[in-house]
Write a structure and sequence with these properties.
Order of helices and strands: EHEHEEHHEHEEH
Domain Flavodoxin-like: 7-185
Largest sheet: 7 strands, mixed
GO cellular component, one term: membrane
Oligomer: single chain
Protein name: FMN reductase
Number of strands: 7
Shape: globular
GO molecular function: FMN binding; NAD(P)H dehydrogenase (quinone) activity
InterPro entries: Flavodoxin/NO_synth, Flavoprotein-like_sf, FMN_Rdtase-like_dom
Strand content: 15-25%
Structural class: alpha/beta
Length: 203
């Protein structure tokens, strides 16, 4: 069966932890039949990056949370996307986001909010995490629950400041990112199928 749609994961990772999250999100997306996933490191703002994102039906944004906000490298990418915004080149694409920080809270929500606003300015359709909160939300919660950090706008992960990317983020956080990638792929596939049906009706 040929690939039908592409989900692009556009991310920056300072030390490798967020890159693991990005790979998990891509794995979730490509687990959906008819979907292929591409990883794009936004550190280098090359023509290849912009072409890859242009050809994707969905873009999942990813950045570590530094000092309560997205990384400088991701912000540079966001600002450089203004040349796409001028022509509304990403309008109606599906979008979502994930982030990682050393703190359990770390003000990660601020990073996800910034990503959602970036997507809104581009006219994209934002996909939420779609999971109930785990872990400390209930007395019998476990630290290996999906969405253990209780985020809703996107996928959150936590990596201790003294743990390398070979051990962090936790498996639960990576599974949560994988869930997000799968959810984005399913949403994008449904929208693409709907557009094809409408195009056929119009014809």
């Amino acid at each position: 069966m040929p690939d039908l749609i592409t989900v692009a994961v556009a991310y920056h990772s300072g030390y490798g932890h967020t890159a693991r999250q990005a790979r998990a999100a891509a794995d979730g997306a490509r687990s959906v039949s008819g979907v292929r996933a591409e990883l794009h490191d936004v550190t280098s703002l090359t023509d290849g990056l912009w072409e890859g994102l242009s050809g994707a039906e969905a873009i999942i944004f990813g950045s570590p949370t530094y000092m309560g906000s997205q990384s400088a490298a991701f912000q540079a990418f966001a600002e450089a996307s203004a040349k796409i915004w001028v022509d509304m080149g990403w309008r109606d694409k599906v979008a979502a986001g994930f982030t990682n920080s050393a703190g359990v809270n770390g003000d990660k929500l601020n990073t996800l909010t910034s990503m959602a606003l970036l997507a809104a300015q581009h006219g994209m359709t934002w996909v939420t995490l779609g999971l109930p909160p785990g872990w400390l939300y209930s007395a019998d919660g476990r630290d290996d629950d999906l969405n253990r950090l209780g985020g809703f706008l996107g996928a959150m992960a936590q990596s201790p400041s003294d743990a390398g990317p070979e051990t962090a983020p936790s498996l639960a956080d990576l599974r949560t990112a994988e869930h997000l990638g799968r959810r984005v792929a399913q949403t994008a596939l449904r929208l693409a199928s709907g557009r094809r049906a409408l195009d056929g009706t119009a014809a």
